[in-house]
Every structure is written in C-alpha cells, then in structure tokens.
Amino acid sequence: MFERFAMAGVACAALAAAACVQAASNPPSGEAQAEAPHASQPARHPKPRLDLSGRTRVGKASFYSGKFNGRKMADGSRMDPQDDSAASKTLPLGTTAKVTNLETGESAVVTIRDRGPHVAGRIVDLTPTTAHKVGIDRHEGVSKVAVTPLSLPPSGAAARTHDGAVDTDAAGPHPDATPAARRRPD
Q1: DSSP character string of 130-186
Q2: What structural domains does the chain harbor?
Q3: The pTM is what?
C-alpha cells in the first residue's frame, strides 16, 4: 500500500514539473506579454553623480568615432575632431582637465563638453586629435589614463551649458532657486 502512495506522489511530481517546463517555454499572450521583462533589453542603471571633489580618476580612455563628427554634444556645441574636447559621465560640463596616458606618459588638457563614454570601464572619451596627442592610436583604441580636473566651473556656471541652456546634469541649485536653496552646506 505504501508503494502505491509513493508511486502516486512521484507521478504527481513529474506532472507538476512537466507543467512548469511547458509554462516556461510558452510565453504569455496578450497584455501579460507586454508587461513581461525582455532579456534583450539592457538593465537601467542609475545616473552617475557628478564628481566635484577634484580628485584624479584612473581608468580607460577611448576616442570618438568618426560618425560623431559635427554632432551636437551635451553642452550644445558641435563635436569637432580637431578640438581638445572630451566626454565624461561624472565631471561637470565646462571642467578643464589634464588627461595623462599612463602607458606613454603623454598628456593633454581638455574641456569636458559631452556625456559618456557609454561603455563599462571607460572614464573619458577624447576627440581623435587629443587621443593622438596622448598616444592612443586607432590600432589600440583604448588606453589606461589618469584624469585630473584642473578647474571646475563655478556652481552657478555649472548649471548653464555652452549655448546658455540649463544643464540638468550640473551640480548646484537651479539658478531660479530661492536664496536659502542656493546656500552651500558647511
């Protein structure tokens, strides 16, 4: 008698497992399918915070692809491959920084005018001219660098971009904020 119950339990478990496998292999239909997360969509990561500390960061640098020539950058200017411009996820727009290639020892001074790079592990994108100055060639494409901020824009200036528009990534209170909101914490 016990063996019959054991066999019935095994049979029920097998049916339940088969139902789970079938349910997993058949995607939901209708509205439920629209709400189901897709593995092909990248996960949303929180926006990086602006770095106003002035400390040196070490990481990988790359350079802008030719397809970005003439495109509008985050500060409103157009990307010119001959300029000493750069993109950073964390430095405020308008920051002047020294980029030093740790493999060659060569340096260049850049102005942060854009957001990016949008590749994990990279901390700065350089224009092709600047990349060449610091010894990053098209063959390698990426190099380990140190980025040292030389001057950060004042908090009021950080809120404005090159063309006068408000930079939503900038640190500091909105220019129209009340005087109490403009005070910096001690």
Answers
A1: HHHHTT--TTT--EEEEEEEEEPPPHHHHTB-TTS-B-TT-SS--TTS-HHHHSPP-
A2: 57-158 (2.40.40.10)
A3: 0.60
